[in-house]
Design brief:
Blueprint lengths: L25 E5 L4 E7 L13 E3 L4 H73 L1
This protein binds zinc ion (ZN).
Zinc ion binds next to loops.
Length: about 140
Amino acid sequence: MPSSSSASSTFQIEYHTCNCGKPSPMRKLKTKENPGRRFLGCGNYEKGKKNCEYFYWIDPDPKLKQIEDKFEALESEKHALHLKCQERENVVQELLKENKKLKKKLTAVQGVVVVYKWKCLFLLCLCIIVVNKED
Ligand SMILES: [Zn+2]
């Protein structure tokens, strides 16, 4: 029995024999599900005749290949989304820093406004006093 089911490139086809001891010929399927998929079969196989039913796929299952391709595509999509998320996270962090700076500036400006309000109130009181003294 062949030991590997997937490594068709390293598979030594010529060394395999079926359980009858005959060289196992490589054949290709022409079915809708497995078009062109290669396999090894019993050397005694002929329709309707007795054989050892030796059977081994050389090529991987095409459905499995489709699933693997889809999986790879999803993996790369996941990677791209992860990078996008990281970029967005960096933008959020920058905006949070900017927000912190602006809050500090606002607090400073609010302090200056309070000082000006007191100065204006003081000047207004001073004006009232001066006007009252002139009377
Ligand atoms: Zn056989």
